[in-house]
Amino acid sequence: MASRPFPFPHALVPPHASPSRHAAPSGLSPARRRAALRTTANGVLGALRPATVLARGAGRLVAALRRRWEHMPPERRGPVLFTTAACLLALWLTPYGPLLGAVALAGTVAWQGRDRSGSASDGGPGEAERARLQTLYEALVPRLALADDPRPRPLYSHDGDWRRAFTDFAFTEDGRLARLRLRYPPHFGDGEPECRARLERLLRARAGRGREYRFVWDEEAGELELTALEPLPCGVPVQHFVTAPGETVLGFTDLHAAPRTVPVVEEGGERRDLPPVVWRTGPRSTEPHLLALGRAGSGTTTLLRSIALQALRHGEVLVVDGGGGAEFSFLAGRDRVVGVETTPGGALSSLEWVVRETERRLLAANRARQTGRDAPEDVCRPLWVLVDRPSVLGHLARSEGQRDPQDLLQVPLRYGRAVRITVALADQFEGAAALTETVRAHTRARIVLGDVTPEQVRAVLGEAPTTTPPPEVPPGRGYARLGSGPVHRLQVPAAPDPYDEEAPESRRLAVLELLPEPAAVPGRRAGF
Ligand SMILES: Nc1ncnc2c1ncn2[C@@H]1O[C@H](COP(=O)(O)OP(=O)(O)OP(=O)(O)O)[C@@H](O)[C@H]1O
């Protein structure tokens, strides 16, 4: 055998590969020499295979751990690190522990590094998934290929291979695309919003309608990542969320977008940890006041109710309701509710009191600072001014020959932050034009709710969302942006009017549970 480097019987060698009749002077034909080389290379590769598998497995394991770590809520990282360290220590102290640990690790690495080119069942793309990726690739070719591309192997071409263009992908258990990272050619206009939007639309259509997607553009690497998003949880009732004083849960968002989660009890009594959009108010806040805009029926009044119910835990609330639907009347006469005003006259007198109260608090805080004492308790107690539909109130006030109540918001909006006075306003898009310049300038926490276009989101939040709209927009769904931070998807907790008989009873009861006791001195109106 040693004198016969060609391992196959001649009968199995294709005719074109049979040894040449004109043998090389060395005694081996070129074809034989090539075959010998191939055999040697195969032998070397075979010998290196365990090392290749282990290296690939280690790489996959590290990548999987890194992904889990990145998606883990920050408050869980400490306990996880501690538990891992404790397990490693216990393993070290156990007889044969390190040896067993090393064997288990090698086994895991080898399992992770196994060849996955076969079927979907072992983690790689199956036939159907490969076909799906190829179809998606072909759909991208007309958009991303360059006619007369001078390069020998362009990234996108009609006979091209998706493996060069798609650097990462994942499928859901039911075979739908869950994630895709693709490279785009340098000539693609990633700086032009219209080009981006066209590509996003195409990808969205090809990845399957009926879901929401997030697009992340990495201009530096020339890559675009698409991720299919889980729907946000609807119908979480408003409740005592686990937050610090000065923090308000505006709603829930994506896990990757929030630095922490809060435990919540869902409608059926099930407990879950959800990532909240937390709004911080008070002297250190950079977004001390809030403005929410939306379509009719999108849930802006519910958002104000949810804020009021959370605010009443640590502070006092004044509601100015221009909607005229008595949707805050359930708060009237409750402890810490300063008032619920529904008429222009009532709104004006209440807001005049707020102006005086802001000035009183500022003077008291100033005096305390000068004498080196702490500010008195009544200066530190949070006061919330919640104004629903200010545009309607302004219109009614003007028709009665009175001033627009919004003018009186100037003082609390400008100076309220230092003395814990917070203003939150909600209106419909149609009323946005009637909002005063002061309101626009001082409400840096922004929310937009309802079935809105990216342009409407940009007009309210200053930036368009990186996510596509949901197939159906439930009430309370929208986007939030705090200051110059990112735009988050948002689902506001359910906080119906408890006297609304059409609202589900469990949600109405959840609201009633949060209501303070009836006030001993109703309305504290003596302070006005
Ligand atoms: N976050 C939410 N979760 C569940 N249901 C909601 C939510 N927000 C609003 N809804 C429901 O949607 C309906 C309209 O809500 P809401 O009154 O808050 O809307 P709006 O934007 O103030 O509109 P309008 O000014 O026309 O009343 C109500 O039945 C309410 O219970």
From TrEMBL:
Residues 274-458 form the FtsK domain. The keyword 4Fe-4S does not apply. It comes from the Bacteria. ATP binds at G294, R295, A296, G297, S298, G299, T300, T301. The keyword ATP-binding applies. GO terms for molecular function: ATP binding; DNA binding. Keywords: ATP-binding, Nucleotide-binding. This is FtsK domain-containing protein. It comes from Streptomyces taklimakanensis. The lineage of its organism: Bacteria, Bacillati, Actinomycetota, Actinomycetes, Kitasatosporales.
